[in-house]
Amino acid sequence: MVSRVIPVDTFDLTIFGGTGDLARRKILPGLYRRYLAGQMPDASRIVGAARSDMDDAAYRDEVREALKEFVEPHLVDPEALEGFLGCVHYVAIDATGESGWRKLRDLMRADCVRAFYFSVAPSLFGALAERLHEHGIADPQSRIVVEKPFGRDLASARSLNRTLAEHFDEAQIYRIDHYLGKETVQNLMALRFGNVLFEPLWNSQYVDHIQITVAETVGVGGRGGYYDKSGAMRDMVQNHLMQLLCLIAMEPPSQFEPDAVRDEKLKVIRALDPVRPEDIVRGQYERRGDTPSYLEDVEDGDSRTESFIAMKIHVSNWRWAGTPFYVRTGKRLRARQSEIAVVFKDAPHSIFGAEAGRHRNVLTIRLQPNEGMTLVTTIKEPGLGGMRLIDVPLDMTFAEALGAENEVTDAYERLIMDVIRGNQTLFMRGDEVEAAWAWTDPMIERWSTRDDRPFRYEPGSSGPEESSMLLHRETRRWREIRE
Ligand code: BG6
Fold first, then answer.
1. Which atom of ligand 1 lies at the shortest distance from residue 338's CA?
2. Minimum-distance ligand 1 atom for the alpha carbon of 235
3. Alpha helix stretches (DSSP H) within 326-429
4. DSSP assignment, residue 361?
5. How remote is the C-alpha of 55 from its chain's centroid?
């Protein structure tokens, strides 16, 4: 099975922040892979825009270095690399001033898709949007792509939305949450709405609880300045984990269309109960050996920001009343492991008697690494000696099942191609982002005003002990985070 590549229309993509980290690590490598795959038409152009004064040749050298560093070595083909670099241009631009804008306008062509990637601090979004209009660079078909963090609370997100809306329609604004571009995250929708098997059971009558885990092994060193002002709640829960929860909990949209999907996600966010303080556990990693602690990484011995959070969430609607969603995410945990586990209820009556023990079906969707799904089913233990039951996993790893040539596409590649196609299904709508902040704000405010201190946890663990208690007290337990 080989991925189908449908070429997109010819485009001019301008990357503001073209020399920045995201451009080097994700955007440019993603575009190069699409070029290699034959999806990016040769006549397309990528225009790096940043403050530094340099010409096309110097920028191409920078891009070449970035690609060599961040693209898989077997994909770095000298001929393809030069072909791709032929599409790359550079404009030195002052986001808040006047220089460079005329040159950018002169580069734009009438007959192709114009997209502008705002890979810069949100404080510059307004200035960029305004300049693009003032100089007649953006047209009504142009698209802008904005990165997270989209605000740091409801008020700032609203203000950002208003600023962008002064110059662009909602249909032109692509708010990225790269989790939505992950292959397995989309597979969640295929699984739920492409099979008859699961949907009848997908509710509180059959599901005991759901666990969402996004565990990372990295710390926050290197980006401590940003992270310490955000914490796990703003950095991960308000966006990535919230999106996963929405896809699991939402009603079937009538079509796989941007607004149909986003309407259903929004309904989930609006149905979330406020989380009680006793249902939230926050943590900070300690030092281990030579590896610095969170407080050392952020260079603030008194920081109260969390590098780990676990919480119990209720979705107050007909489908989910009474089924808790436990979510957790953290840095410096035992392993990099992101998964969603749907834990079904016990069979209503065991015909096998008490000695057969307790058995439950668990459907696990692994987002990374080792993307795939496992369904734990109960069967008879083989052999003589009566009816003994055991749980065995029906395991599917996508790379094995679908063949190596179906390499998992990086989220950014898919999302950038969707921008060019004009498909907003995997992007967040303004009201969704605002609703997510409206839900998280009171929790953040509560612990900030009470000056709560996060619990400490050992690096390489599953987070603070108190997080296990969240489930233990209800005779449940977290799934293991395994190396
Ligand atoms: C980013 C967060 O949005 O997502 C990071 O800011 C986090 O803190 C990253 O490490 C995780 O993304 P992924 O794709 O590696 O799971």
1. 16
2. 6
3. 398-402, 411-421
4. -
5. 34
DSSP symbols for 371-390: -EEEEEEEEEPSSSSS--EE
For the chain, the residue count is: 483
Lookup: tokens for 191: 């699984």
- Sign of the four-CA dihedral 241, 303, 22, 176: positive
**Ligand 1 mutation target, pool 182, 238, 240, 294, most atoms within 8 A of CB:** 240
* pLDDT tens sequence across 55-106: 999 999 999 999 999 999 999 999 999 999 999 999 999 998 889 999 999 9
Which phi-psi region, left, alpha or beta, contains residue 231 (left: φ > 0; alpha: ψ -120 to 50)?
Answer: left
How far apart CA 7 and CA 5 sit, in angstroms, is 6
Q: How far is CA 420 from CA 180, 279, 423, 461, in A?
A: 16, 42, 8, 42
User: Which residue from 66, 33, 6 is spatially nearest to 407, judged by alpha carbons?
Assistant: 33
Looking at residue 446, its amino acid is: R
Strands 113-118 and 143-146: parallel
CA-nearest residue, atom 9 of ligand 1: 236
Global pTM exceeds 0.85: yes
Kindly write down the DSSP assignment for every residue of 196-231, as one continuous string: TTTGGG-STTTEEEEEEEEE----STTSHHHHHHHH
In angstroms, the CA 323 to CA 336 distance is 27
